[in-house]
């Protein structure tokens, strides 16, 4: 792989570009935001819109902007393969099915809690799980391009069905965002911030850090995955109701113990992520 074009120069796109530049790849970039373009230019990304064919084009915009971009596929040219890195996959991959350019849906499982203001951190892609969804337009050549791309990032290649992706991500990402926001809402409505700050230990910090994420990005996730979110939100509320019904001490200890055992097994297998 020699060249990549990244469309969308926010947190994920710019850090991806800087990472690839460090690996000797020529990176072109584009964005509708002048500040983002100037920042990318200073970091070594070529923002000249005129260039020869690239090996891979990456759509690194918010989910709904990716969908709009794919619907206007006349813009897609001069590339051997197309990859998006949006947080939901069903609607995006359905559009990719119809493209002439070999396309793959992607979702790197990395990022920063507060993605509104940030310093360059291209290392976020290193050793990250990178979920991939095949589409009807995917070719063997495009799979090879993506595999080589992930080797450059030192990321883990994991293929998954688009429907299964959105189902699981609603549990592991979208519902946690709702819970995080709800906890902040309770604290915000019932207590002064100085009261909370004086008594907010690691539990509150860890459980609410997702609320720092840019709301527009989260809204896009809900817009494109509401069916799964609503389904599992009902399951979550049922689970909370069942916990409330555990009146006996031993019942509660058994429930908590099984949860602790499962969560520690997760940490043993995948390690523990920093909360910062």
Which helices and strands appear, and what pairs or packs with what?
Elements: E1 3-7, H1 11-22, E2 26-30, H2 34-42, E3 56-59, H3 63-71, E4 82-84, H4 90-96, E5 103-108, E6 129-134, H5 140-153, E7 156-159, H6 162-190, H7 193-199, H8 202-208, H9 215-244, H10 249-270
Parallel strand pairs: 1-2, 1-3, 3-4, 4-5, 6-7
Antiparallel strand pairs: 5-6
Helix pairs in contact: 3-4, 6-9
How would you explain this protein's 3D organization?
Helix content is 53%, strand content 12%. The chain is of the alpha/beta class. The chain folds into two domains: 158 residues, 3-Layer(aba) Sandwich (Rossmann fold), CATH 3.40.50; 81 residues, 6-phosphogluconate dehydrogenase C-terminal like domain (6-phosphogluconate dehydrogenase C-terminal fold). β4, α4 and β5 form a beta-alpha-beta unit. The chain is globular and about 70 Å long.
């Amino acid at each position: 792989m020699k060249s990549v074009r990244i469309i969308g120069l926010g947190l994920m796109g710019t850090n991806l570009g800087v990472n690839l530049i460090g690996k000797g790849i020529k990176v072109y970039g584009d964005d509708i935001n002048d500040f983002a373009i100037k920042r990318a230019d200073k970091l070594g990304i070529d923002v000249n819109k005129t260039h020869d064919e690239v090996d891979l084009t990456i759509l690194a915009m918010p989910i709904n902007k990716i969908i709009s971009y794919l619907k206007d596929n006349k813009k897609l040219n001069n590339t051997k393969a197309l990859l998006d890195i949006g947080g939901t996959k069903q609607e995006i991959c359905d559009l990719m099915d119809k493209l002439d350019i070999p396309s793959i849906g992607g979702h790197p499982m990395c990022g920063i809690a507060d993605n509104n203001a940030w310093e360059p951190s291209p290392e976020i892609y290193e050793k990250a799980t990178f979920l991939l969804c095949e589409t009807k337009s995917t070719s063997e050549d495009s799979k090879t391009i993506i595999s080589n791309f992930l080797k450059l990032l030192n990321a883990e290649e994991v293929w998954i069905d688009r429907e299964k992706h959105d189902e699981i991500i609603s549990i592991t990402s979208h519902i946690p965002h709702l819970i995080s926001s709800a906890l902040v809402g309770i604290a915000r409505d019932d207590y002064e911030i100085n009261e909370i700050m004086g008594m907010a230990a690691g539990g509150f910090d860890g459980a609410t850090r997702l609320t720092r994420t840019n709301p527009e990005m989260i809204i896009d996730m809900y817009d494109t995955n509401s069916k799964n979110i609503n389904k599992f939100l009902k399951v979550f509320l049922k689970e909370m109701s069942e916990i409330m019904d555990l009146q006996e001490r031993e019942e509660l200890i058994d429930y908590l113990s099984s949860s602790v055992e499962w969560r520690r097994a997760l940490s043993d297998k995948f390690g523990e992520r920093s909360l910062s």
